[in-house]
Amino acid sequence: MTPRILNCLPLLGVLLLAACGPVSRSDTLLDDIESYINEAPDSARTALQALDTTELVTRRLRARYSLLRTMAQDKCYDDITIPGLLDDAAWFERHGTPDERMKLWFYRGCIQLSLKDNNEAALAFSRAETFADQVQDQHALGLLYLAMQNVYMNVYNPAREQEYAEKAVDVFKRTDDPLTGHALGMLAMAYQGQEKWAQADSVYREARPYFESVPSLAHFFYSKYALLKVLQPEKDPEGAIELLKRYWELVGAFDITEMGVYAYAHELLGNREIADQFIPALRNVTGEYAYSALVWLADIDEARGDYATALQERKGLYSQERSIIQNALDDSVTKNLRDDSARQASEARAELQRTWIRVGGAFFALLSAFLLLLLRKSKVEAERDRLVDLREQMQEELDRVQEENVEKTELLSGQEDRIREMEEHVAREREIYTRERVKRLRQLGELRSTFWWRDHGWMREAEAIQRIKKEISYVYQTDNDGAALIRRLDDELDGAISRLRKGLHLRGKPQEVLFLCCCILDLEPEMIAEILDMSRTNVYVKRSRLRARIRELNDPLLSVLVEKL
Fold first, then answer.
1. Residue 164 has pLDDT above 90, yes or no
2. What is the spatial distance between Cα 117 and Cα 151, in angstroms, rounded to a whole number?
């Protein structure tokens, strides 16, 4: 290492420390904020707003800041649908811990829930739930289950609403979390929505001591519990009144539902004067909240024995023109006060008939709409089934094509192996053929050398002839039925003699095989006759027959052996 590089090392160390300083400070500050964000979200929000974001020099720091900022605003009931608020936290989607990933998807779902998009919220919460078995932050897991319970409550799925409420209660109880009462209240509401009155009442009673620990939500659960008291088969108006008195202490006023429950409970106890104090306010409710008022007015009138009025009010619940019907009923009542009893009864019957006609028309319209929806649903289901069948057919065709491709691939692979083996065999045979050819050429060279020696007088005639005989000695080996000659020719012709012996049925006939070899060597007929001790004429006849029999074998390689016969 050169002295110049050594002199630069201290400067490099100082630069690294300077770069690590802001990262370390920011990490420590974010850790501190995260430690109290659940208990003091206001303080956490203030601290995050005061943080110098220019020190967030890494993507992880920016992701942590984005997630904590969203958490703080949500816990402070601020708007979390601000564009870009959670964007930097997307880094956790691939690089975060299970807790960070779960919280990222959880708050994405919370944003969608704030935008009233239950479908997208459910999707985000479902992805967050995939990390449920890996997370350490059980408080966040409980909040996730409560959020999912809220989604299913919005889409009227009481079974799943109950399931996630039970999960939230289990998590919060296990960790002794302050939100245990909140979770119990939501579970009681889930039971209540399914008319499981005894279970709902039991959970409400268990949750009631927790309500006071959550002042911002206590009045809400008191209202729902009071509602249960007057809806269950064995009504408890005293209990409902006691709960609503506590509600009044917390809020200082009644909403429409609370007024209705309070008046109805007093009516059940015979306190008509108290009930009458709220009835005018309920009757004055208009618009989208008129439905809630009519429910309790009908219940109060029914408790008083005024079944006609109660019936009219219940009819109004299902009419598309509630305000018109209510005005008409009010007018009828006013006229009845001035007319005699007979005319009052007649007007009441006429009004009731008109009401039935309107209700019938509304019912027919609703029925028509319902049938149209069913028809559309059936068409959609038929189309879905068709698409499913088409997808299955395409999948089957794809599977078949893939199987054929696999089979063809295996076949081609086998053919490649065979081709490779054949090429190797041809190479070996070519080498053997080359060696034999070289051997024949050298034999010819030796014969030419012999004649050259004889022509120059350096070799006697007898010696030259002896040397030539030596080179072609195997042709002379015709003793012992020519066994040596037959083996030599069979080797030279790559087993052709053995195939001919089998094809011509010459096994056990050595003289016939020797005749075949002499013909292949194209020896003179007189020589063949001398070797095999037969006449020259007989040699011609047998050679002609042999050639015909070989051609009948229909083997071109073997037919070549007798082309000149």
1. yes
2. 9
How many Cα atoms within 13 Å fall on the side-chain side of residue 495?
A: 4
Q: Which of 53-57, 102-106, 229-233, 370-374 has the highest mean pLDDT?
A: 102-106
pLDDT tens-digit readout, 94-107: 999 999 999 999 99
Is 507 domain-assigned?
yes
Question: Domain ends where: 41, 76, 111?
Answer: 76
pLDDT band at 506 (very low <50, low <70, confident <90, very high): confident
Each residue's pLDDT tens digit, 420-434: 888 887 777 766 666
Last residue of a domain, one of 76, 104, 120: 76
- For residue 269, tell me if it sits in a domain: no
Range of the domain at 535: 472-562
Give domain status of residue 182, yes or no. Answer: no
CA atoms of 457 and 451, how far apart (whole Å): 10
How many CB atoms lie under 10 A from the CB of residue 194?
Answer: 14
Closest CA to 141 of 186, 190, 175: 175
What are the tens digits of pLDDT across the range 437-488? Answer: 556 656 556 666 666 776 777 766 777 676 666 656 656 666 667 777 788 7
CA distance 298 to 282: 11
**Dist CA 257 CA 30 (whole Å):** 44
| Whole-number Å distance between alpha carbons of 37 and 35 | 6
Q: What is the largest CA-CA distance in the chain?
A: 171
Question: How far apart are the C-alpha atoms of 42 and 151, rounded to whole Å?
Answer: 26
Interval 107-119 mean pLDDT = 91
113: which 2 tokens?
């829930």
| Rounded Cα distance, 221 and 437, in Å | 108
Contact in structure between 193 and 159 (CB atoms under 8 Å)? no
Say if 127 falls within a structural domain. no
Alpha-carbon dihedral sign for residues 71, 77, 78, 83: positive
Please state the φ and ψ torsions of residue 521, each to the nearest 5 degrees.
-75, -5
pTM higher than the cut 0.85: no
* Structural domains in the chain (count): 2
Q: Phi/psi zone of residue 339: left (φ > 0), alpha (ψ -120 to 50 degrees), beta?
A: beta
Indicate the SS3 state at residue 270: coil
Structure tokens at 205: 């009673």
Q: Where do runs of H (alpha helix) occur along 232-306?
A: 237-251, 256-268, 272-283, 290-303
Q: Which of 72-76, 115-119, 212-216, 438-442 has the lowest mean pLDDT?
A: 438-442
Long-range CB contact pairs, 93-97, < 8 A, 24+: 95/59, 95/60, 96/63
* In contact, 243 and 209? CB cutoff 8 Å: no
**What is each CA distance from 185 to 158, 221, 228, 445, 560, in whole angstroms?**
14, 6, 12, 114, 103
What is the residue whose two structure tokens read 């019938």?
360
